[in-house]
Inverse folding.
């Protein structure tokens, strides 16, 4: 399949990286081999979420600069077979150009069913690099005006990059908080503002954040697991209804 998916958000704090990890775990649980690539140069965090921070010797910058072979910068998750990570460099000055990154991903994707790229928030040069090899995109947003404004900017940029397969993930959704905020009449209005088809509605659950921060992705359960399993199946092309478990 060799499908490359960039996961992006217009602003920080939407839970984009958590979505990347949870989707990857769900795909692995459906017998897919997945490579996660952290493109957030200077702000990497996926190594912590997968509990491989002590293992990282090489990152994606090392792989393109010749400091190591690309496969030497790929690290296996401790908790799950078939889930792998290529970390971002700690130094933001080591940002990779879109052309070079596309070539790297072109080499790597032959060994995986899916490559999932965690883009830095916003529409800067790091986002352009992360999106460059993508076949399709997921935009992660929260159901609030500032987050949706960023989602619209991201969608327009993705369209400029000729990525037409764009889907929306509304993350950390609470019906109670949505009603209290009272910025939108309903979720249909949120989707209309974003301008992208909804593929997942992820409930707010503090357990998900706790799982990520403890580096035990794939070992703990939360109600959101059902939603990510559904998202993975929809990514695989299964025609199934939208799942939501929440208040």
């Amino acid at each position: 399949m060799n499908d490359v998916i960039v996961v992006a958000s217009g602003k920080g704090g939407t839970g984009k990286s958590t979505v990347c990890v949870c989707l990857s775990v769900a795909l692995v649980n459906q017998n897919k081999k997945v490579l996660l690539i952290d493109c957030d140069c200077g702000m990497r965090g996926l190594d912590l979420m997968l509990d491989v921070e002590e293992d990282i010797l090489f990152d994606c910058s090392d792989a393109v600069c010749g400091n190591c072979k690309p496969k030497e910068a790929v690290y296996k998750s401790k908790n799950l077979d078939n889930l792998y990570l290529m970390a971002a460099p700690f130094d933001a000055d080591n940002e990779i150009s879109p052309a070079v990154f596309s070539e790297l991903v072109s080499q790597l994707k032959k060994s995986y069913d899916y490559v999932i790229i965690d883009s830095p928030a916003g529409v800067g040069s790091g986002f352009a690099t992360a999106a460059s090899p993508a076949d399709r995109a997921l935009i992660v947003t929260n159901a609030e005006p500032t987050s949706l404004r960023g989602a619209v900017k991201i969608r327009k940029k993705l369209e400029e990059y000729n990525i037409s397969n764009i889907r929306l993930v509304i993350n950390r959704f609470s019906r109670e908080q949505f009603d209290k905020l009272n910025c939108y009449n309903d979720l249909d209005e949120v989707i209309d503002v974003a301008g992208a088809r909804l593929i997942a509605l992820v409930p707010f659950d503090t357990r998900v954040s706790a799982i990520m921060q403890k580096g035990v992705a794939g070992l703990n359960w939360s109600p959101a697991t059902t939603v990510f399993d559904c998202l993975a199946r929809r990514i695989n092309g299964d025609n199934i209804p939208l799942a939501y478990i929440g208040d």
In short: DSSP finds ten helices and eight strands in the chain. The first helix runs from residue 16 to 29.
